[in-house]
Amino acid sequence: MAEITLKGLAHSYEKAPSGAADYAIRQMNHVWHQGGAYALLGPSGCGKSTLLNIISGLLEPSEGDVLFDGHRVNELPPEERNIAQVFQFPVIYDTMTVFDNLAFPLRNMNTPEYRVKPKVLEVADILELTPLLKRKAKNLTADEKQKVSMGRGLVRDDVTAILFDEPLTVIDPQLKWKLRRKLKEIHERFNITMIYVTHDQLEASTFADKIAVMYEGQVVQFGTPRELFERPAHTFVGYFIGSPGMNFMAVEHTDGQVMFGAQPLPVSEKLKIAVANARSSDVSAPNIKLGIRPEFISITNTPDSHSMPVQVISVQDLGTYSLLTFKLNEQTFKARLPEGHPPLKETAFARFDDAKVALYIDEYLVEAGHE
Ligand code: ADP
Ligand code: MG
To answer: Which residues line ligand 1 (CB under 6 A)?
Structure first.
């Protein structure tokens, strides 16, 4: 068991990296506390597998340190780190039985046979592999093979952490849901640090207490699913979390107004001041944006002092709510309409909930909405 700290970590697959774009991991400082159930969430190619491989020791980082309980482990090979890793595709011995596959990590550490058996049976039971224990692994289905592969990650209870790299990719959707719940159960039972990599926000939030959102080689936010929804620290989090994601508007402060192109935005006095004082690092093309989630835009057929005329494009009925697509200042927006919302005319009126509009400078949150 250990706390895993990443200190000034960076990794490039290039021999002579020349700029940020050459780094798969860019200057990362992060702590995974002992016993946590974590998800590492981000789009394909953002560096998730690279990061896991650095933690497990399959890959040596080009810069920075990996610390277990404060001790540097950069040079320790994987087998000395006491970490179990489950990969996207099954890693099993085809000619061995399921039992022997599950027993392998224990026997490999010279665990006495009388302790191997109960542990294998316990893990087989959790993963519903008991009827298959005597079968040769090569005769299993893809799902079953991956379950064995996961079981191999779970048999040792002396591990510091278990890292899962998109382990359910090859598993069918129903079983996926079941296995995710099992993993959560196992986490609660054994109190082992688990880091679960996925590109699926639903998968991340059903498994993890805290999610690290990764984007272009950096953790841009580490928080509970609720924090990621309510207070996205980076525009990417706003866009990636939620369905659909946050709406963003590039704005500037002119003549005492917050302007979104030619459209003045009715925002709170506090936000108006924040926009007036906003300084982007790019002076020639300042990167200043307001964000509002589709859930916090209300739409009516008649105007009021705080609303703006918008062009209705489409309304999609999704059962418990509808999703409206509209245009404002030539840009497409999404808004959620509650069930039973009256039909909308071609021109409707949108109102942003003042308390939910957030300000982003250079893509990072500066001023969040307030309750
Ligand atoms: P993810 O797991 O989030 O999809 P990866 O960690 O696999 O992302 O990849 C991060 C970046 O590093 C990508 O741009 C990928 O092309 C690159 N990369 C990954 N593995 C290698 C490798 N062995 N050699 C060179 N580049 C790699
Ligand atoms: Mg990957």
So the answer is: 13, 24, 42, 44-50
